[in-house]
Write a structure and sequence with these properties.
3-stranded antiparallel beta sheet; mainly alpha
């Protein structure tokens, strides 16, 4: 029997029984339990299973199995008509944007293809023309992936965090010697937070590193956030775990070096394994400090007394080398939203009312493409030249428009070039 020919047992398998194996194959990290794709695919597969069982959709939708049958949907119930109906459900009943409909359907289609390879289905029904017919046309844009920081926005944001960090550091370093210890700690904490925010904004603005390569991703255990050991300020480089699933060096241009160097001096991390961008979330740090000191054999009363001697648990963690986790990618978005509001940066975008992290990368990409062309930009962005050309095609279109305008001006300005021949009448 052909490996891809469904067996009777496979056809009688419920849809949900295949999900975990599929997600493990597509997941990242040990055991395949990490990664954003796994999380998003799991969500859409569960929605598809609920819809197939009649739990989602229009009020009169009862699912893909006959009303007189009491069981969960199985693979024998699937054919191209089912996927056509689900495409229609996504396109109409849920009121999603056309690109989002395409994205959600692709998760189901990818699972369908896997099921063919694994012997659950005999054909890739989801990719048949009749199944995909109800889907709206894809305009080629990814939802929320079009924001690009302009030069004015980049300068406004970096200028704001730079001024704020300078003021905070100066306020801390110029305190009188007889300042109360807790007040001095509060000033150091404020300076650390401002210096961290400045370093983060400068890296996102000038390196074009993906935020998922820089910070912790709670859905991917391998992305734990960059540590000081990953940075070489002398060489102007930073080791990051790239999207292509391997470690690689990213460039740190001159504007980034000074903020990082100043921030490191202020933090004075106990070891090189400390995160460059630790979380400042008080609840997280309080739990971390209490648990670590308890593991070290400290009595609860002694822990409370020790914590009372510090204005913030982060400062205690620094002093006791209790390594906190890195800020998450979601945390970075919250930080940038707060800073964008404080800097009063004007943002006109349908999805983001602040300067989102991916906008810094895309904005830097525009700068590089305009200045050095697609090949150099592709190397800096860690992308293929083909993808960079596709993402920044509007730049080439604009430049070709300028060439056309120049040509028209030159040709049209030649006297008599386009004059009609006089007939003497």
């Amino acid at each position: 029997m052909d490996r891809n020919t469904p067996t009777e047992r496979a056809q009688g398998t419920s849809l949900s029984e295949s999900f975990e194996r599929y997600l493990q194959d597509k997941g990242k990290g040990r055991g395949g339990d990490g990664g954003n794709y796994r999380r998003n695919a799991a969500r859409e597969l569960e929605r598809f299973a609920e819809w197939a069982a009649g739990g989602r959709g229009a009020e009169d939708w009862t699912g893909i199995i006959p009303d007189d049958v009491d069981r969960d949907p199985t693979f024998e119930d699937l054919d191209e008509r089912v996927f056509r109906e689900y495409a229609r459900h996504l396109a109409g009943d849920r009121g999603l944007k056309q690109n989002t409909v395409q994205t959600y359907y692709r998760y189901i289609s990818a699972w369908c293809g896997w099921c063919v390879n694994e012997g659950y289905l005999e054909a890739h029904y989801a990719q048949r023309a009749s199944a995909m017919a109800p889907l709206p046309e894809d305009d080629g844009r990814k939802p929320g992936d079009q924001q690009a920081w302009t030069s004015e926005q980049r300068h406004a944001l970096t200028r704001h965090v730079d001024e704020r960090a300078r003021d905070a550091v100066e306020a801390y370093t110029t305190l009188p010697e007889d300042t109360d210890p807790l007040d001095k700690q509060r000033a150091r904490y404020a300076a650390l937070k401002a210096a961290r925010d400045r370093a983060l904004v400068f890296i996102l603005a000038y390196t074009a590193v993906r935020v998922g390569e820089l910070l912790r991703d709670s859905n991917d255990p391998r992305r734990r956030g960059v540590r000081w050991e990953d940075l070489s300020l002398e060489d102007g480089s930073m080791d990051v775990y790239r999207k292509k699933q391997q470690w690689d060096a990213a460039s740190l241009p001159d504007p980034v070096i000074s903020p990082l160097r100043s921030y490191r001096r202020l933090m004075d991390p106990p070891t090189e394994r400390w995160p460059v961008f630790p979380t400042f979330d008080q609840r997280t740090l309080a739990t971390l400090v209490q648990d670590e000191l308890t593991d070290r054999g400290e009595h609860p009363d002694a822990i409370d007394e020790q914590r009372e001697g510090y204005a913030r648990d982060l400062l205690l963690a620094l002093n006791e080398d209790i390594r906190p986790p890195s800020v998450t990618t979601d945390g970075a978005r919250s930080i940038l939203k707060r800073i964008s509001d404080a800097a009063e940066v004007e943002v006109d975008h349908p999805k983001h009312d602040y300067l989102a992290p991916h906008g810094g990368r895309r904005g830097m990409g525009e700068v590089l493409v305009r200045a050095f062309g697609y090949t150099v930009a592709a190397r800096y962005l860690d992308n293929s030249e083909e993808m960079v050309r596709e993402r920044y095609s509007h730049i080439e279109a604009g430049e070709l428009g300028d060439v056309a305008t120049e040509a028209l001006n030159e040709i049209d300005s030649i006297p008599g070039k386009n004059d009609k021949i006089s007939t003497g009448n």
